[in-house]
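Please fill in the sequence for the structure shown.

STRUCTURE ENCODING:
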C-alpha cells in the first residue's frame, strides 16, 4: 500500500510539473522575422540601393572625365619633356601630381557624401521597419518577436509556423508604396505654394 501511495504521489508530482511547463510555455505568443530577407526584399531598401547606384554613377562620370583628362595631360607632358627640358618636366610633374591628389580627395569626398546621405536614409528605413514590427507585435498580441538573419541571429531554430516574415514584408511594402505615392503629391503641393 505504501509503495502504491508513493508511486501515485510521484506520478502526480511529475504530472503537475509537466503541466506547469506546458502552461508557461504556451502562455507566450512568439514569432520570428528573417531580417536578412526583409533587408533584401523590403521595397524601401531596394529603392535606396537603386538611388545610391544612380547617384554613384553620376558622380563617377564626373570623376572619370577628370581622370581621363589627367591621363591625357600626363601623356602630353611626357612628349613635351624632351623638348622643354628637365626643369619644365619636373614642374609639370609636380602640377600633375597635385591634380592627382585633388582627384583622390574628390573621390573620397564623393564616397563620404554617398555614405552620409544613404547611411542616414538606410538608418531611417531600418528605424521605420523596427517600429512597424513593434506596432505589429502589439496589435497582434505577441509577447516576443525575434529576429533571425545571416549576420546576427537570436534564433537558432524555430518551427516554420512561427515565421511571420512574409506577412511583415507584405505589409511593410504595402505601407511603403502608399507613402511613396503620397510624397510626390506633397512635393508638388509645396512647389505650387512657392
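FILLED IN BY: designer on duty
SEQUENCE:
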Amino acid at each position: 500500500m505504501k509503495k502504491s501511495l508513493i508511486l501515485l504521489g510521484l506520478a502526480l508530482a511529475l504530472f503537475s510539473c509537466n503541466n506547469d511547463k506546458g502552461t508557461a510555455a504556451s502562455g507566450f505568443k512568439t514569432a520570428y522575422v528573417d531580417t536578412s530577407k526583409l533587408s533584401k526584399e523590403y521595397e524601401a531598401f531596394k529603392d535606396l540601393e537603386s538611388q545610391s547606384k544612380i547617384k554613384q554613377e553620376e558622380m563617377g562620370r564626373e570623376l572619370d572625365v577628370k581622370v581621363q583628362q589627367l591621363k591625357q595631360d600626363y601623356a602630353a607632358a611626357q612628349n613635351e619633356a624632351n623638348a622643354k627640358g628637365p626643369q619644365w618636366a619636373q614642374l609639370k610633374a609636380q602640377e600633375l601630381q597635385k591634380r592627382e591628389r585633388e582627384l583622390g580627395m574628390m573621390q573620397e569626398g564623393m564616397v563620404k557624401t554617398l555614405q552620409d546621405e544613404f547611411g542616414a536614409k538606410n538608418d531611417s528605413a531600418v528605424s521605420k521597419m523596427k517600429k512597424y514590427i513593434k506596432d505589429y507585435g502589439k496589435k497582434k498580441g505577441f509577447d516576443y518577436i525575434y529576429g533571425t538573419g545571416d549576420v546576427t541571429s537570436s534564433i537558432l531554430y524555430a518551427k516554420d509556423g512561427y515565421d511571420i516574415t512574409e506577412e511583415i514584408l507584405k505589409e511593410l511594402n504595402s505601407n511603403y508604396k502608399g507613402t511613396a505615392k503620397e510624397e510626390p503629391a506633397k512635393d508638388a503641393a509645396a512647389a505650387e505654394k512657392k
